[in-house]
Structures are given as C-alpha cells and as structure tokens.
Amino acid sequence: MADIDALIRRLRSELGAEQVITDRQELRTYECDGLAHYKVVPAVVALPHTATQVAAVVKACVAAGVPYVARGSGTGLSGGALPHAEGVLIVTAQMRRIVEVAPADERAVVEPGVINLQVTKASAPHGYYYAPDPSSQQICSIGGNVAENSGGAHCLKYGFTTNHVTGLQIVAPDGDLVRLGGRALDPPGYDLVGAFVGSEGTLGIATEVTVKLTRLPESVRTLLAAFGSIDRAGAATSAIIGAGVVPAAIEMMDALAIEAAEAAVACGYPPGAAAVLIVELDGPAAEVEAQFEQVTGLCEANGAFEIRTAADEAERALFWKGRKSAFAAVGRISPDYIVQDGVIPRTALPEVLRRISEVAEAHGVRVANVFHAGDGNLHPLVLFDARNAGEADRAETVSGAIIDLCIEYGGSITGEHGVGMDKSKYMPRMFGPDDLETMQLVRCAFDPLTLSNPGKIFPTPRLCGEKPGSDLRERFPGVEVF
Amino acid sequence: MGVLDELTRPAKDDDHVGGAPARLVAAPGSTEEAAALVAAAQGLAVVVRGGGTKLHWGPAPRELDLIVDTSRMAGMVEHAAGDLITVLKAGTPLDDLELGGQQLALDHPPGATVGGTVATGASGPRRLHYGTARDLLIGITVVRPDGTITRAGGKVVKNVAGYDLGKLYTGSYGTLGLITECVFRLHPRPAAHAYVRSTAPAQAVPSILAARVAPTAIEVDSATGELAVLIEGTAEGVRERSALLGKLLAGEITDAAPAWWGLPPWDADGIGMKLSVPLSKVPALLDAGATVRGSAGTGVLYAAASGITEVERLRALCVRGGGHAVVLTAPSPVRDILDMWGPVPGLALMRRIKDQFDPAHRFAPGRFVGGI
Ligand SMILES: Cc1cc2nc3c(=O)[nH]c(=O)nc-3n(C[C@H](O)[C@H](O)[C@H](O)COP(=O)(O)OP(=O)(O)OC[C@H]3O[C@@H](n4cnc5c(N)ncnc54)[C@H](O)[C@@H]3O)c2cc1C
Ligand SMILES: Cc1cc2nc3c(=O)[nH]c(=O)nc-3n(C[C@H](O)[C@H](O)[C@H](O)COP(=O)(O)OP(=O)(O)OC[C@H]3O[C@@H](n4cnc5c(N)ncnc54)[C@H](O)[C@@H]3O)c2cc1C
Q: What span, in angstroms and rounded, lies between the C-alpha atoms of B17 and B365?
C-alpha cells in the first residue's frame, strides 16, 4: 500500500493546507456523483487553483503510485467521478476563470471548472453562445462536458461537445502539462483533442479548454405538438427529418413523463396527450418561417390533435420548462428511479418504445420516456420504490434490458452520459475484445500506469506492457507470419 | 502458397509513393482478406492507396515494400435514409455515391475515395457549415498493422461509448492501419443555392458572419481578389438571404461557383501548403503576398508558395498568430530539405500512440509528423 500520509504531506506543501481535504465528514461530500447508488469515500480531496497545481498533484500521485480521479461539478450520471478509496479526488471547481472571450476568433478560453451556462452568458453580449446545452447546463462544468462529450437538446443540428472544442491544455497522466490544438483548426498530427474529448478522465485532466462560439440565430421558433399515440409522434419525427428539415431540436415526452412534469411545474401541456413533441427551428428568419410551416403541416398530417406555437419568449420557456424539469419531476411520482441513456436508429423509435413498455409491464415497473427524438437518444426513467422488496432489482433488470434492446437495434449503450463505472459491464456487449483492446492502446499511450481514473469505461483493463498482436498465428491459422 | 503470394503482384512503374517505388501491390476484396494480407505481410513496409489523388501529399515513405490498393473494396454497404446514415467501403469513389435527396457533405476532387478522404482529413469550402470528415464520420472499421480487425463508433449519430477512435484515424495518413469501412452521417440536399460574389476584401468576413445569413461557405482567393459566399436552403430563404448579402457586399448573385472554387491554388509541380489560423488572422494571410485561397469562415486556407523562403515566411506568420502551416506537396528536390509538417505540439504523445498501434513502424513509415 502506498504511503497516503506522506502523499498528503506533499500535497499540503504544494497546494497549501486549506486546499487539501482529509476530514472524513468533509470527504463524504464527494462520495458520489449524480449517480448516487455507487458511493466511495476518497482518501484525499485536492482543490487546485491552477493548472500548475493540478500538474503538481498528478506528479505526486504518480510518484506515490496512487490513483487519482478528476471531478468537475459532480453531476455525471454514470459514476465517472466516483472516487477511488485509496486515491486522490482532484476537484476542479475552483478553476472557474473565463480566460478570454474572443468574438473575432469565435472562440472562448475557459478553465475547466467554469459552468457551461456561464460561457453562453459571457458570449451573449457579443452576439454568440456556446451551443452544447446539456439539461444540467446551469451546474455542470466545461471540464466534465469535455470528459463526457456531453450533448444536449440542440445537438441534432449543432453536434456535441467534440464538435465545439478546438484546443485543450491537459495534465497528461505522467504529470506533464501539454497543449493540444488551440484557436486554429486542424493542428498537424493525430487528432489528440478528438481522442481526449469523451475519454471520461482516463487520459488525463483538462486544465484549460478552448471552445467554438456559435453565432446567435436571427430567429427561433418553437412548437409543441400533442399526439394520441407514441407511434404518431415517432412518425411525425421521421417525416420532419425525411423532408430534409434539420430542426435545432426535436424532443419527445410520453404520457407518464408529461404527468410528472405537470405535477412538478404545471407546464399546461395539452390534456390527454399520449406523447408531445417539442420542435425548435432556428436560423435566418426567412428560412425558419418557411420550414416552420412545413413542420406544422407534417405534424398535422401525422395526426397531431393540437399544435401550439410559442408567441413569445415566455411561452417558449414554458414549453421547455416541462421538458427540462422532467428528470427532477419524476421524483414527484416515484420515490426512486434510474435514468437510462441509450441510442437507437431514429426509425426504430416506435418499435423500441413498444418493446420497452412490454418489458416494463412484464416486470411490474413503470417507465417514463423523455428523450431527444431527433437523435434517437432515449432517456427512459425506470421508476421504482426501494422500500418494496425486490422492486429495485426489477428496475435494474428492466434498465439492463433496455440497453440490450439498444444494442439489438444497432444503437449504443450511451448517447451522452458516458460509460463510467456504471456501464463498463455493458461495453463487451457492444464491442468485441479486439475493439476494446484497440481503445486501450490509446489508454496505454497516455497512461501506461493506469492511474488516471482507473476502473472506468473498461471492464478489464489491459496490461500496458504486453505486445499487441502476439497471438497472430492463433487468429489466422494457416497464414504465414514472418 | 501463402496468402501473400496469392494476393500480391509485382509492382509496375507507376506503383510508387512520392517517388519511392514499391516492390509488391495487393488489392484485397474484403475486410477479412485485407486482414489476412496485413497479417501475412509482417516485416513489410506498407502504404495504403485509395484513388491516388493525394498520395504525393506528405513526405515519401522511408521504406516501401507493399502498396495495398483499396479499389476492390468499393461500394455502398447500407444507406438508411430515414436515419440519415450510410455505410461505405473504403475504396468507394465519392463521385459515385447515389444518395437520392441526401448527400455526404464532403467536397472532394474527382477520383477521391472514402478511405483516402478520411485518412487525409483535408477540407473544402463547405466545411464552414457541414464540418469535415472528422465531424461526419460516426463509425469505422480498421485493420490494425498486426492484422487485427477492429471497429469503433457505430451507426448512430449520438454515441459516447468508449474512445472516439474515428477522430484518431481521421487525418492519420494511413499510419495507424488500413481503413476498410466507414459510417457517415448524411445531410439533406438543400432545395436551392446561390453564390454571392464580390471583390470585397477579407475584412468583410466579420460583417458576413454578423449578418446572420448562415452561409454554407465563405471562400476567398488572393489571386483574383475575389470573395464568394455560398448560401443554401429553401428557395425563398436563399433568395432573401443572398439578396441581403449581395447588398452588403455590393456583390453579384449567381448560380455558378467561381472557376477557382474548391481547387488548390498550386500547379501540379509547385509547393502546396495548408494554412490554418484563428479567424482574426485571415486578412493578414491574404495580404502576405502569396497566392492564398480557401475558407475565410473557418481559417483553413491553401497557399501556393514560390520557394522555401516563402514557406518559412508563411509558416512564421501562421505560428505567430496561433496557427499552423503544413507543406502538403512539393517537388522532390525541395521536399528533401523542407520540414513539411512544421512544429507539432503533443508530439511525444503521438509517438506513443504510433508505438502502441504499430510497434514495428511498418505502416507509412516516415510519412507523418516527427518522422512517424
Ligand atoms: C439533471 C441532470 C441533467 C443532465 N442532462 C444531461 C444532458 O442533457 N446531456 C448530457 O450530456 N449530460 C447530462 N447530464 C450529465 C452531466 O451533467 C454531464 O455528464 C456533465 O458533463 C458532467 O459535468 P460535471 O462537471 O458535473 O462532471 P463530473 O460529474 O464531476 O465528472 C464527469 C466525468 O468527467 C471527468 N472530469 C471532470 N472534470 C474533468 C477534467 N477537468 N478533466 C478530465 N476529466 C474530468 C470525471 O472524472 C468524470 O469521469 C445531466 C445530469 C443531471 C444531474
Ligand atoms: C482545395 C482542396 C479541397 C479539398 N476538400 C476536401 C474536403 O472537403 N473534404 C475532404 O475530406 N477532403 C478534401 N480534400 C482532400 C482530398 O479530397 C482527399 O484527401 C483525397 O481525395 C484523398 O483520396 P484518395 O482516395 O485519392 O487518397 P489517396 O491519394 O490514395 O491517399 C491519400 C492518403 O490516405 C492514405 N490512405 C488512402 N486510403 C486509405 C485507407 N483505406 N486506409 C488508410 N489510409 C489510406 C494514403 O496512404 C495517403 O496517405 C481537399 C483537397 C484540396 C486540395
């Protein structure tokens, strides 16, 4: 066992005592992220203020052979920031400086602890915003977004975090500060920024992030369409995409999700709806008007029984309020729930949703659906009451079955929340051993000692010393190998 | 007879890469056959060839035994129109794609293949709106230098399961393996388009962006002093937006692109560079005295340099401004003394990636940054 006490002394002298937490009670604040059913109290928490301090902490961990985990705001939903019991949790929340907003370059440079929404707020006076908008945008950090390659309602048109990060400063797992990319596009060499985004803290810690800013659209129009069945809402979604319209967002909620949202925020959605769609179009006014009429027509043609268009910003906010508060709202109709995050091809939506409800019924649990329909990114909320014997297990079974459905239909086990601790066991269902091994070649290049957020993403980490391809003869019997 | 004998033929005169002659050429017909070939070719230096349109980009290989040609791995595997995706084999020429009302929104010269386009990771005018191969690629199959077949990503647009290896392969110039299949996100073909052409200088670019007309491309050409903007969308929208922009730029509205649109500005035997700078530095590039052409909306441009002094001058200008300048192609005497890639931040990590994927350094040796 590494000498944690010696490491703590070193961290105190590098950072100052007030930036190193060892008090058991205080440490417990950090025992989980947004996925509260995994809990581990870290041995130490470090609160660096600068990139140099992050590097010093990582160097100290490497010297001591102690694992470390980065944490931003701790809103992750896959247990990515789950601490290591014998390791250091490096919390970037104090690194909240917006270094620069550079509208002439359409970039902003920020420290990792900066809250997503703050980037938009700082850019708005210049006519820009930061496009990736996870529902947690008021609390999650840019560092966490980079690690998770976070998405949001507007990804359908604008892409994910990875499409909006052009430069990083990272502390590599050996403790070196490295700059990757910058304000200009296409730096020569391998796309290390692209490889780092979405690596969930396993390839090092981002200490500065350069993001693209997006020009605020001239016009935004939002409509809410109510349908008598999920199938009709799904068909309307397909029809919109099929017509060649790329809305900024197409979000769907089913009856149970609507019920929860109404109970929580009284958003006043059309009564009796089995599904509602929120469709948002943005862009030049002339373009948006033409497409808005087209979308309205397609919703009608696919059986919408009521269509409301937001007349002003207040109404638009009300449409979104129900959607954005749906996760939290579900807490009102069920004491416990699991938020699942899987992806299917958009065209399979009606079929998969039907099968989800069959599975749920067979196990006697309820599932509320609220999701990014345009991307086929499902967020089934599996409701249960932990006080009832066996219900938690049944919910877990249903949640797993949903992931299997996503794989069966050629989709993904996660669209935006990441693999983390929670889904590492599903990785072998989506990828073969060779695929996983190839990913870990990258891990070994960055972090041969596997100290950076160990135990996440990969169910069985590779030993970085071994030579790839040593079993060629086995894999290609009869083939000459020279 | 081994797989190698079955699949290879002796090289001919035109089977060379940047002047380096090959010994053998093989054209496998499937991912499995390619894997068997690569596994059997342990010990041989390999360069992958697609359409051959950019094979002269980058330094010549340090060694070359075998050219793996992807022309027999061609064709569309799948086009799921409702899901806006397509699965294509690596040797498929981009010219041949039949996608109905949809498009794979990558500009490309005639003859470019899917694999070559991804491996090169260059970009044309429409990048401003649609992004590049990096952004449109959602899944990939690669034969690793040891012969292992490996997949990353998938067939859905939204997917964060595991590392995004597609990004790493994009622009890797064939140094990490043989790309055999790619999955792309598609876009609907716009109903209408127009070009607004003017002689406004590049300083006008901020005002185009500020006009919020959502251009698909903003291209400049220092040789003609022209600026051209592509507007796409609904018929009504295009009419209105191009009229607005036409007024703003005192420009002419046409159906057709200028003759220089999307073409590299250098001669076949000249020095060709790719320059990328932060947006605010684009005007300085256009005033630098070289023939510069490209995307003023993204800061990625191409230049024809008259000689080594000019290469160095342009590179210094770009690097000082926070950007990069890569020499893509040059006549062989010049090539030998030029540092084609220029300064490369993060090189130590890149070397470690190469060592993991290709420990014997057999794939395109010496073609990439830092002699990788
Ligand atoms: C109500 C709610 C709604 C949500 N909605 C969405 C949504 O719409 N879309 C979406 O994508 N996600 C959503 N999330 C999930 C979560 O907000 C995102 O994953 C977010 O990016 C996490 O940011 P964070 O700062 O909280 O990161 P944390 O939870 O602290 O960490 C997440 C991961 O990032 C790593 N990490 C953190 N900082 C760094 C760094 N500087 N360098 C390297 N690694 C780092 C951690 O090790 C961990 O693996 C939601 C969560 C909640 C609670
Ligand atoms: C002005 C201009 C605009 C351009 N616009 C675009 C654009 O918009 N989008 C875009 O993507 N490209 C663009 N390009 C680049 C160009 O389209 C492609 O790079 C090119 O066509 C490559 O295709 P190819 O099949 O001829 O490849 P080749 O010339 O055969 O090969 C190119 C490189 O890729 C490697 N390679 C080829 N096939 C494979 C494979 N299957 N696996 C691994 N490595 C392989 C080769 O070894 C070589 O290094 C542009 C170029 C210029 C100059």
A: 12
Ligand 2 touching residue B317 (CB < 6 A): no
CB A235 within 8 A of CB A350: yes
Domain boundaries of chain A, sorted by first residue = 4-91, 98-215, 217-327
Specify burial of residue B1 (Cβ count, 10 A radius: 0-12, 13-18, 19+).
exposed
ipTM of the predicted structure? 0.97
Q: Are B164 and A194 within 8 A, CB to CB?
A: yes
Whether pLDDT at B3 is above 90:
no
Outline where A243-370 has alpha helix (H): 255-265, 285-301, 313-324, 326-333, 349-363
Q: Which DSSP category does B22 fall into?
A: P
- 3-class DSSP state for residue A258? helix
Q: How far apart, in whole angstroms, are the C-alpha atoms of residue A250 and residue A252? A: 7
Distance CA B45, CA B49 (A): 13
Q: What is the mean pLDDT of residues A382-392?
A: 93
Q: Is the pLDDT of residue B221 over 70?
A: yes
Q: How many CB pairs under 8 A join A and B?
A: 299
Give which of A60, A104, B342, A103 is closest to A119, Cα–Cα.
A103
B59-B62-B64-B67 Cα dihedral, nearest 10 degrees: -30
Neighbouring-strand partners of residue A44 = A88
C-beta atoms surrounding A391 within 10 Å: 18
Radius of gyration of chain A, Cα coordinates, nearest whole angstrom? 23
| Residue B327 main-chain phi, psi, to 5 deg | -85, 115
**Residue B121 CA to ligand 2 centre (angstroms):** 7
Q: Which residue has the tokens 């050219």?
A: B67
State whether residue A351 sits within 8 Å of chain B by CB.
Answer: no
Q: Give the contacts of B309 (CB within 8 A, at least 6 positions apart).
A: none
Q: Is B300 helix (H, G, I), strand (E, B) or coil?
A: strand
Measured distance CA(B53)–CA(B315) in Å, rounded:
25
Across the interface, do A189 and B210 touch by the CB < 8 Å criterion? Answer: no
Beta bridge partners of A46: A20, A90
CATH of segment(s) A217-327: 3.30.70.2190
Protein fold of B271-340: Alpha-Beta Plaits (3.30.70)
Q: Which top CATH class is B1-189+343-371?
A: alpha beta
User: What CATH topology corresponds to A4-91?
Assistant: 3.30.43
A375 interfacial to chain B (CB closer than 8 Å): yes
Residue pLDDT, tens place only, A423-480: 999 999 999 999 999 999 999 999 999 999 999 999 888 888 755 444 444 444 444 4
User: Tokens at residue A56, please?
Assistant: 């010093």
Q: What is the mean pLDDT of residues A155-177?
A: 96
User: Tokens in use for B275?
Assistant: 């320059």
Handedness of CA A52, A145, B164, A211 (dihedral sign): negative
Q: Parallel, antiparallel, or unpaired: how do β-strands B85-89 and B102-103 relate?
A: unpaired
Burial class, A18, CB count within 10 angstroms (exposed 0-12 / middle 13-18 / buried 19+):
exposed
**B130 Cβ closer than 6 Å to some ligand 2 atom:** no
* Structure tokens, A279: 């469709």
Higher pLDDT, B193 or A469: B193
Strands in A148-232 per DSSP E: 165-171, 177-181, 205-212, 214-215, 219-227
Domain A98-215 has CATH 3.90.1590.10: no
Mutation to test the A interface, candidates B84, B160, B175, most A Cβ within 10 Å: B160
For B57, the 3-state DSSP assignment is: coil
At B137, give phi and psi (nearest 5°).
-80, 125
Q: Is A186's pLDDT higher than 50? A: yes
Contact A4, A12 (CB under 8 A): no
What gap in Å lies between CA B239 and CA A286, rounded to an integer?
A: 9
Is the CB of residue A98 less than 8 Å from the CB of residue A114? yes
Arch. (CATH architecture) of B192-254: 2-Layer Sandwich (3.30)
